[in-house]
Write a structure and sequence with these properties.
It contains ten helices and eleven strands. The strands form three sheets. Strands 3, 4, 5, 6, 9, 10 and 11 form a seven-stranded mixed sheet that branches. Strands 1-2 form a two-stranded antiparallel ribbon. It is α/β, with parallel strands linked by helices. α1 crosses α4. Helices cover 42% and strands 22% of the residues.
């Protein structure tokens, strides 16, 4: 027994005619007849008595009709809900988020949701997508750090500054700021590049620009992780991280955060999207990002694609 059998039963019962019921269900009469016979065989009762002008329900058919109607209504409601969910998912905006940027993203999300409450946003961790090599398969728009792929358009939102994460009881932790020269004799805890390619590359570039060579301990956890905090607090090394009023804070018990005093020790946070994607959802989210972070906004705008 499946949905087709019950729907066939209800249709014949209400139409009292197999031909009209088949027309109502958009099928031919033979498969409808076959479905009714299969249902009768499974239930072990006769549901209809056919005669020259139509079909009459048996007592057993009358007794089962209300239950069949209830089941078909429930299944119909389920189908309707599934179609609605599919439609809603097709409208979803897939958003990539760079590590530590949830606070900034949530400000944009709240502003966007007030204007477009019916557009769902599906979040994706860019670290994990970079690791799996699947970024372009999932993301419509991203809040992230450059460099970006050549096919991406972007606008800057705000700046992050580099900071040094040290144990609170480290002799350098009381400084107002630190230079890379102050850190050459300390172990630099360096995370895997996929976790934050732009942060990783900038750390390497800062050391190269300073003409210094760090004492690197590679393959370490990201600086926001619990095990990273344990390494720092127990004075097994230091991290170079990034900080802003919109970036996930590194401040926690046992860890000091000291500004890094080096030329260009900063990164821009951008909203980025596929250069040729001018869909309504993307345009609305980019505009929300512009509204929330207007200071660094560039004059370029997303425009709908003109038809040929």
């Amino acid at each position: 027994m499946d949905f087709r059998h019950l729907r066939a039963f209800v249709a014949v019962a209400e139409e009292r005619n197999f031909t009209r019921a088949a027309h109502r269900l958009h099928i031919s009469q033979p498969p409808l007849t076959r479905q009714i016979r299969q249902l009768e065989d499974e239930l072990g009762v006769t549901l209809f008595v056919r005669h020259r002008t139509g079909a009459e329900m048996t007592c057993e058919g009358v007794a089962l009709l209300d239950a069949a109607r209830a089941v078909t209504k429930s299944l119909g409601d389920l189908e309707t809900a599934a179609r609605s969910l599919k439609t809603r998912q097709s409208k979803a905006l897939h958003l990539g988020i760079g590590w530590g940027l949830w606070k900034a993203v949530n400000l944009i999300r709240e502003h966007h949701a007030r204007r477009f409450p019916d557009v769902p946003i599906v979040a994706h961790d860019l670290c994990e997508l970079h690791r799996a090599g699947k970024v372009d398969q999932h993301i419509d728009v991203a809040v992230t750090r450059p460099p970006l792929d050549l096919d991406k358009a972007s606008e800057p939102l705000f700046d992050e500054r580099f900071v040094v994460l040290l144990a609170e009881d480290h002799p350098l932790a009381s400084r107002a700021s630190l230079t890379l020269a102050d850190l050459t004799s300390e172990p630099l805890l360096l995370f895997e590049r996929y976790i934050g390619p732009s942060v990783y590359d900038k750390i390497i570039a800062l050391w190269a620009s300073a003409g210094l060579k760090p004492m690197v301990v590679e393959h370490q956890p990201p600086p926001y992780a619990q095990d990273a905090m344990m390494l720092v607090a127990s004075r097994q090394g230091y991290y170079l991280g990034i900080a802003s009023q919109y970036t996930q804070s590194h401040r926690t018990s046992g860890v000091a955060v000291v500004p890094l005093d080096e030329p260009d020790a900063r990164l821009e946070i951008c909203v980025a999207w596929h250069r040729n994607d001018t869909s309504k959802n993307v345009r609305e989210f980019v505009q929300a990002a512009r509204d929330v972070f207007p200071v660094k906004r560039q004059p370029t705008r997303l425009r709908p694609r003109r038809s040929a």
